[in-house]
Amino acid sequence: MSVRKLKPITPGQRFKVVNGFDAITADKPEKSLLAPLKRSGGRNSQGKMTTRHRGGGHKRRYRIIDFKRDKQDMPAEVKSIQYDPNRSAFIALVEYKDGEKRYVIAQNGMQVGQKIISGSEVAPEIGNAMPLSDIPLGTIISCIELRPGQGAVLARSAGTFAQLMAREGKYATIKLPSGETRMILVKCLATIGAVSNSDHQLVVSGKAGRSRWLGRRPRTRPVAMNPVDHPMGGGEGRASGGHPRSKNGIPAKGYRTRSRTKDSNRYIIERRKK
Predict the structure, then answer these.
(1) How many CB atoms lie under 10 A from the CB of residue 125?
(2) Residues 157, 87: contact at Cβ < 8 Å?
(3) What angle do CA 158, 3, 53 make, to 5 degrees?
(4) Calpha distance 122→32 (Å, rounded)
(5) How confident is the model at residue 169 (pLDDT cuts 50, 70, 90)?
(6) pTM given for the model
(7) Which residue of 15, 28, 42, 155 lies most exposed, with the fewest beta carbons within 10 A?
């Protein structure tokens, strides 16, 4: 995986850094695994705007991803590595021995023709999904379940990975990408290896238009607003805006918003760094 810096032949290309896409092996997605994707524009079911700066963008179709990896002990061959417009990671099209095709999140180093398998007594190799009870300690993992059978919810975006630190009783201790250390049931599945497209963080769009293509609308600085529009607005001249906070008045820059009485707090051994 690599990135390319373009020659500044136009103003939009002067600072532009694009993904090399050298890991991608197919242009067209698998039609049987596509679904329509309706855009909300940041509105809820009542039509009220609940998320700002959303709207427009190129039309997308959703790729149905197998996060559960519930086809146990049946080998699958990686047919291609593909781009997915709905996520930062690349996806892999795999074909099982019985002919069924599925999309899975691609791990770093996954190759076309490679065999992957999900099960309890399989080798801890890149792309294989295993219960935390069978993964060797210290292994780099990703696509981790929080509840058995739920499907992967942790460490799914480009370049992310967690590490299996310890096991005690029915719980495993995992160090997550955020720096948080928490306990997860050993029956939960995880995939061996870090998620693909680790160079995603190096990409620079180069111009405002590329954000519009992705469905992101312009954002107005709070200090440029009036007091009626934002807690940080108003003031004579270029006022600093006071304490940084959201439009709803919730403080930003390190203010903890997690509930102190949340039930899952007991599974967190060490909180993420401020």
Answers:
(1) 15
(2) yes
(3) 55
(4) 29
(5) very high
(6) 0.91
(7) 28
